[in-house]
Amino acid sequence: MTEPMEGWRHVFKLDPDRELGRRELDAVLGSGTDAILVGGSSGLTYDNTAALLEQLASAPMPVALEVTRPELAMPGFDAYLVPIVLNTPDGGWITGRQARALEEWGGLVPWDKTWAEGYLILNPDCEAAKVSGAEASLTELQAAAYARLADRLLRLPLLYVEYSGRFGDMALLRRVKRALSGARLVYGGGIDGPERAAEAARIATTVVVGNVLYVDPAAALATVAAVRETVPAD
Ligand code: 1GP
Questions:
Q1: How far is the CA of 163 from the centre of ligand 1 (A)?
Q2: Into which CATH architecture does domain 10-228 fall?
Q3: Which helix (H) or strand (E) element contains residue 161?
Q4: 107 CA from centroid of ligand 1 (Å)
Q5: To test the ligand 1 pocket, which listed residue (119, 121, 162, 227) has its Cβ within 8 A of the most ligand atoms?
Q6: How far is 73 from 179, CA to CA, in rounded Å?
């Protein structure tokens, strides 16, 4: 992988703090998804993250970690994505925590597989918004401004539009997409089956499916083909 998420159209996000049965996990591994992203906004520990990594040992696709806390950054993942929350007034979530982590671990980071992930959190009720203090109720214009900032000013490789737990505003997502020139647009939030997956896949380059895996695995699995069959509109 020379670019983050290169070739990833569909991604399942697994939360180490939630239980997925072995059968469901095997179905995920055989689903044809392009990658597995390990992450969550609360309850992640070294132990539950390491346990999930071990369960994913036979994964035929890349397994990446979203590094929200330095103690989770264990070896063994194919890629490491470090969130930078764009729309929070709390500098700790922009660069503070990352800089503190690098004070201690800077010499150990595998930079060839580590990337920044610009996070635009747009569901004020989601855990990520609460934890990071994100100002998540944005107009299309405001969201597009953040997108431009991430893409043009910071030259981040990824812009992750995060609606975790709620299906997002697709008109806003389209506006965000138009503001990008180089950053890859990643969408996640509220995809509960193939229809919404296809809707998001028409706009975003990478579509992330999380929660539905734990509540309706069959619907979750059906999102893989839906995304794969959808051609992104320009
Ligand atoms: C969460 O964007 C992902 O970080 C996926 O969201 O859990 O709502 O599918 P859902």
A1: 7
A2: Alpha-Beta Barrel (3.20)
A3: strand 158-162
A4: 32
A5: 162
A6: 32
Ligand 1, atom nearest to 211 Cα: 7
pLDDT band at 32 (very low <50, low <70, confident <90, very high): very high
Distance 71 CA to ligand 1 centre (A): 22
Average pLDDT over residues 218-224: 98
Nearest atom in ligand 1 to the alpha carbon of residue 188 is: 2
Distance (angstroms) between ligand 1 centre and the Cα of 1 equals 23
C-alpha span between 190 and 168 (Å, rounded): 7
Distance 82 CA to ligand 1 centre (A): 16
The pLDDT, as a whole number, for residue 71 is 87
Report whether pLDDT(154) > 80. yes
What proportion of the chain, given as a percentage, has pLDDT over 90? 93
Helices (H) and strands (E) in the chain, counts: 9, 8
Q: Which residues line ligand 1 (CB under 6 A)?
A: 13, 162, 164-165, 188-191, 208-212
Predicted confidence at residue 42, as pLDDT, reads: 87
Tokens of 52: 């999930």
Distance of CA 20 to the CA centre of its chain: 19
pTM of the entire predicted model: 0.97
Residue that is written with structure tokens 């981040």 in the block: 156
Per-residue pLDDT tens over the stretch 160-187: 999 999 999 999 999 999 999 999 999 9
What is d(CA 83, CA 67) in angstroms, rounded to the nearest whole number?
7
